[in-house]
Design brief:
Chain A: Keywords: Cell membrane, Membrane, Transmembrane, Transmembrane helix. The structure holds 3 protein chains of 3 kinds. By secondary structure, chain B is of the alpha/beta class. Chain B is about 35% helix and about 25% strand. Chain B has a single domain, classed as P-loop containing nucleotide triphosphate hydrolases (Rossmann fold, 3-Layer(aba) Sandwich), CATH 3.40.50.300. Chain B is built from 7 helices and 10 strands. In chain B, helix 6 links the parallel strand 7 and strand 8. In chain B, helix 3 packs across helix 4, helix 4 packs across helix 5 and helix 5 packs parallel to helix 6. Chain B is globular. Chain C is an alpha+beta fold. Chain C folds into 2 domains: about 180 residues, no CATH class; about 220 residues, no CATH class. Chain C contains 14 helices and 12 strands. Chain C has a 6-stranded mixed beta barrel. The two termini of chain C are about 35 Å apart. The chains are: A alpha+beta, B alpha/beta, C alpha+beta. At the A-C interface, helix 2, helix 9 and helix 11 of A face helix 2, helix 10 and helix 12 of C.
């Protein structure tokens, strides 16, 4: 049957056709945008972090008594805990930090080159106060200078040296070559290391600016982090011991959570992940609804048009032709719906971008999702179309 | 043109077997206009359906144009119907979403003819039935007589060798019926073989041959020639 | 009535005749309504007004009184202690309270294991302003430092196993406090007074501590704090009171338009004075944000629920189209019967009554389905978006709205098909 005839028939059944088209279009629009969101979440989870996600474990904890939260008892506690962690078999390195990495916001500071405050000032740079082995735990590369070997004191007269990540150094000094020893507001630059992903800022681009000083934290009122890197394959075994080992060292602590960095990263994108999962479920439901609709529409069509199919058979249409004719009705409908749907998807995409961060549509996703839609509709129409081929041509001669 | 030898058709249900047709022998020659009459339930429609390859049969043989239709695939039967047989139904059976033009075009499309040829044939057929001016109407916009003329145009546009008509005037008043009969006679004169089921003795008389069917058995009244002498 | 029961019977019969199309229609309608309802629950609760009639009278004043040189910038999200002192000098507001959130460990005696507690450090007007129900005892007599705490009902139960504990003492971070009040069950949702630290979706605090005591004992803010000079944020009691350490939320109650106008003028004069004194380097930008606009002001509306709301609404529309499509097919299949009834003398209004019976049945079935799917949807959303889990409760308004929605949807789904069926040409249908 020709395209023009199919279109004519569809136009004659305006209401049913419009109903079907509207829902096909909306289904495609949703399908497209949820695939887009799922894809974005996937990309976020696969973005390089500069960290060894699987082998690095972090413990977020807080001493439960005020004495343990103040120096010198705090210093003693930190050292006792680090020693205990180092003694766990399978631990390569351990360190403390005032805060974990891969978090939503956290402790940060503005940072500038004291010789050039106006130009170089960067607000909201994540600031880590760590023990010397921190860099060993993260397994970062040293690009310039030397890492501090001993812990300094934030409250002393001489400020401890500052370690910068590569992109932060670049932003601060704009490509100047020798930056070790340059004075920043927090202290002199002692080294530059490879980038890692520290904090996700509200509404900011994902940048890898981080500054570190080897010194005990100012305060642990918000808790602190113990970090450790394990031998490959040892992570689970090490994790199982962590709670009891730390409780043995000091019972007056509250452990908020123990996570691998991979879990931490997953937690960071929890919202996106949740929304993508919800949209995917919704899309599956919607495809199901569309299939039910295509099925019932085709089924009804066949029932209603027994006579017509019989006549066509009498006029020389083979079973195959009847089958293809019915399927192509669905196909034409789906394709028209898909074209409308891509339009709807663009509108929905813009509407969604107002409230969540969502990448714009690309050119190939509509094709793939239209193909998925077409496949579902074909699947749903298959059975009614097969029933249609069973209509006997002799139906044509029976008077109703 | 058509040869049936010892053809039987049985309808079976779990309890009973009904012989719709019993050892039917029939010969219809090229260019004949035959009327098929008989009381309801006598097997008229079944015979017509078998002749039109719309239904299968249980035993015997059916030669159309010298070739047996037995054991042909669905696709081959469909092609046969499309190319050699034209149908006219009592209830017209026009497709109501299609215009007059589209209705007539349908079998030509199934045959895979080129657009230009389709157009030419449809014009001719419309000319013959006198409905050229209404080519873009929908069936529902035409009177019963006109609808049946469209159905006739659809049947002959494919230039079939044989036209099977199932009570073509059954739903029409006498004036309309006469017009349709005249049209059929005109088509017959152009060389098309016609087999028409009818209740109307007048119409049966107008046909050149009257085949009666009672309880699944044939009683050929006129122009009966024994099979043995039939060879030409 | 007897007649209507007859119509219901007829409806049931016609369902029995073709159960699959009917089941599919109900299924699709239930899915659409259920998914929509699940999301509407969150949307409704997240956007509900926690203090109806009062949320437009409570304001969060913000100023740029800080050693912060910038052009075109909004005031900090929190105030410094000295900011609050200057603002509190005005007697225009009917009530005012500064506050922040912190954390501590509570126990009855020093040898018990500590219980982690969310602490709200605040002033006495807090309870009146946010209509906090008091079960036992009273709030602090004034805004001075007191070693007195007010407990939430659940914290009292957790620590003491009972609520009548006024006068008892407890240990908070190794210091002794006496309990002077216990709150009744209270969960302000959303907790808009905490919106500046993006904490308005979390549960209420367990322990309430006087602001001055919090500063004296160096309770640090655990949500939002920022310093604009070299104030050491660990020295709340000293530097924290004078320096540019911004961590305080401040709420004032301004009941009339005149009060609001006066207060704005007061803020303006204050900023001008501070500017003249050199303590306000940035251009003046005062904000007086009413509580019902505070989330919008900070731009922290959780977009995912909004996005999902849009999408589920579309889904409901699709399901409606779909269900009416299915229903249309069903009615068209039954059209012969309709025509027959009319031929037998039923008039259109009687047929419409029959439709009404159909609508009611459809409503009942789809409502049950929607409740089930809605419940599943809410559980799923709690699992996937746990930060909104406080907002997943159903109340009478919501359930009533769902019943109405189910009724309207069932009616819409039945309306067009029934019109088609009952207004079709009688003659033609019988002939077909």
């Amino acid at each position: 049957m020709s395209l023009s005839l199919l279109l004519k028939v569809m136009l004659n059944r305006k209401v049913v056709t419009i109903l079907l088209l509207v829902q096909l279009a909306i289904t495609l629009a949703l399908l497209l945008n949820s695939v887009l969101l799922a894809q974005q979440t996937h990309q976020q989870l696969n973005r390089p972090t500069g960290l060894e996600l699987e082998e690095t474990v972090l413990v977020q904890l807080k001493p439960t008594t005020p004495q343990l939260r103040t120096y010198p008892l705090l210093e003693d506690l930190l050292q006792r805990q680090l020693r205990a962690l180092r003694n766990i078999p399978g631990v390569v390195a351990s360190a403390y930090s005032n805060q974990p990495m891969l978090t939503q916001g956290g402790n940060n500071n503005n940072l500038y080159d004291v010789d050039n405050e106006e130009r170089s000032n960067i607000p909201g740079v994540p600031t880590y106060f760590v023990s010397p082995d921190f860099f060993k735990v993260l397994n970062v590369d040293v690009l310039q200078g030397e890492l501090p070997q001993h812990s300094g004191f934030l409250d002393s007269e001489t400020q401890p040296g500052v370690v910068l990540t590569e992109s932060l150094a670049e932003q601060l000094f704009q490509g100047q070559s020798s930056i070790v020893g340059r004075q920043l507001n927090l202290g002199p630059v002692s080294a530059v290391i490879s980038d890692f992903y520290g904090q996700r800022m509200h509404g900011a681009d994902e940048v890898m600016y981080n500054s570190m000083q080897v010194a005990p934290p100012y305060s642990v009122d918000w808790g602190y982090t113990l970090l450790l890197r394990t031998e490959p394959g040892q992570t689970t075994a090490v994790r199982e011991q962590l709670t009891s080992v730390l409780q043995q060292v000091e019972p007056n602590i509250e452990i908020y959570y123990i996570r691998s960095l991979a879990e931490q990263q997953h937690q960071l994108y929890r919202n996106e992940y949740g929304l993508a999962a919800l949209l995917t479920i919704l899309t599956a439901l919607m495809l199901l609804v569309t299939m039910v609709s295509s099925y019932s529409s085709a089924h009804f069509h066949v029932l209603k048009r027994h006579q017509e199919i019989g006549v066509k058979r009498a006029l020389g249409a083979s079973k195959r032709l009847i089958f293809i004719e019915l399927l192509s009705e669905s196909w034409v409908c789906t394709l028209v719906g898909a074209v409308l749907g891509i339009g709807c998807a663009l509108i929905l995409n813009q509407a969604l971008a107002q409230v969540i961060s969502l990448p714009p549509l690309n050119w190939w996703l509509p094709l793939i999702t239209s193909a998925i839609l077409l496949f579902s509709v074909t699947l749903a129409t298959w059975y009614p179309a097969a029933i249609a081929t069973r209509v006997s041509p002799a139906t044509a001669t029976k008077a109703l | 043109m058509i040869t049936l030898t010892n053809l039987s058709k049985i309808f079976r249900t779990e309890l009973i077997e009904t012989h719709a047709l019993r050892d039917v022998n029939l010969q219809i020659n090229e260019g004949e206009f035959a009327a098929l009459t008989g009381p309801s339930g006598s097997g008229k429609s079944t015979l017509l359906n078998i002749l039109g390859t719309l239904e299968s049969f249980d035993s015997g043989d059916y030669l159309l144009d010298g070739k047996s239709v037995k054991g042909l695939s669905d696709a081959a039967l469909s092609q046969l119907r499309n190319e050699k047989i034209g149908f006219i139904f009592q209830s017209f059976n026009l497709i109501k979403d299609f215009s007059i033009y589209d209705n007539i075009e349908l079998p030509l499309r199934y045959r895979g003819l080129k657009a230009a040829e389709r157009k030419q044939r449809i014009e001719q057929a419309l000319e013959l039935v006198g409905l050229h001016a209404r080519r873009d109407y929908l069936p529902a916009q035409l009177s019963g007589g006109q609808q049946q003329r469209v159905a006739i145009a659809r049947a002959i546009a494919g230039r079939p060798r044989i036209l099977l008509a199932d009570e073509p005037t059954g739903n029409l008043d006498s004036l309309m019926a006469r017009q349709v009969m005249e049209l059929l006679e005109q088509i017959n004169q152009q060389g098309c073989t016609i087999l028409m089921v009818t209740h109307d003795p007048d119409q049966a008389r107008r046909a050149g041959r009257n085949i009666q069917i009672i309880d699944g058995q044939l009683h050929d009244s006129t122009m009966y020639e024994p099979l043995a002498t039939q060879s030409a | 009535m007897e007649q209507f029961i007859y119509y219901l019977k007829v409806s049931l019969l016609s369902i029995k005749r073709a159960p699959l199309p009917y089941a599919l229609t109900v299924f699709i309608l239930s899915v659409g309504l259920g998914v929509f309802f699940a999301n509407a629950t969150f949307y409704y609760q997240l956007n509900s007004d926690p203090l109806p009639g009062k949320s437009d009278k409570l304001f969060f004043p913000m100023t740029l009184i800080a050693p912060y040189q910038c052009n075109d910038c909004r005031p900090p999200r929190a105030l410094s202690y000295s900011n609050v002192q200057k603002l509190a000098a005005s007697d225009i507001p009917s009530a005012q309270a500064a506050m922040y959130s912190s954390a501590g460990y509570a126990r009855l005696t020093i040898d018990q294991p500590p219980t982690p507690a969310r602490v709200r450090v605040t002033q006495r007007d807090f309870f009146q302003m946010f209509e906090v129900p008091l079960l036992h005892g009273s709030v602090w007599a004034d805004d001075n430092a007191h070693n007195q705490v007010i407990l939430s009902r659940s914290m009292a139960l957790k620590l003491f196993g009972r609520t009548g504990v006024v006068g008892e003492s407890l240990v908070l971070d190794d210091r002794n406090f006496s309990v002077i009040g216990v709150l009744d069950e209270w969960q302000m949702l959303p907790r808009l007074y905490d919106a500046n630290g993006r904490n308005h979706l979390s549960p209420t605090e367990d322990i309430f501590l006087p602001l001055e005591t919090g500063y004296d004992l160096n309770y640090l803010s655990n949500s939002y704090s920022q310093t604009y000079d070299d104030t050491d944020y660990r020295q709340l009691a000293t530097e924290g009171r004078s320096g540019a350490l911004h961590q305080l939320q401040y709420w004032v109650q301004l009941d009339t338009a005149a009060q609001q106008h006066d207060y704005q003028q007061y803020m303006q004069s204050l900023a001008e004075d501070e500017k003249a004194a050199g303590r306000h380097p940035a251009p003046i930008n005062n904000q007086l944000v009413p509580m019902n606009e505070i989330v919008d002001y900070f731009g922290d509306d959780p977009g995912d629920i909004k996005a999902f709301a849009l999408v589920t609404l579309l889904f409901l529309v699709v399901c409606l189209f779909n269900a009416s499509h299915l229903a249309l097919n069903r009615y068209l299949s039954n059209q012969y019967e309709f025509s027959l009834r009319r031929a037998l003398g039923a008039n259109r209004s009687q047929l419409q009554l029959q439709m009404l019976a159909d609508v009611l049945l459809m409503t009942v079935f789809s409502l049950l389905g929607a409740l089930l799917i809605g419940y599943a949807g809410v559980s799923l959303m709690n699992a996937l978006l746990p930060q909104n889990s406080l907002f997943s409760t159903w109340d009478l308004t919501l359930i009533t709205a769902l019943i109405l929605a189910a009724l309207v949807c069932s009616y819409l789904v039945t309306l067009y098909p029934s019109l088609r069926a009952s207004f079709g040409s009688l003659n033609q249908q019988l002939k077909e």
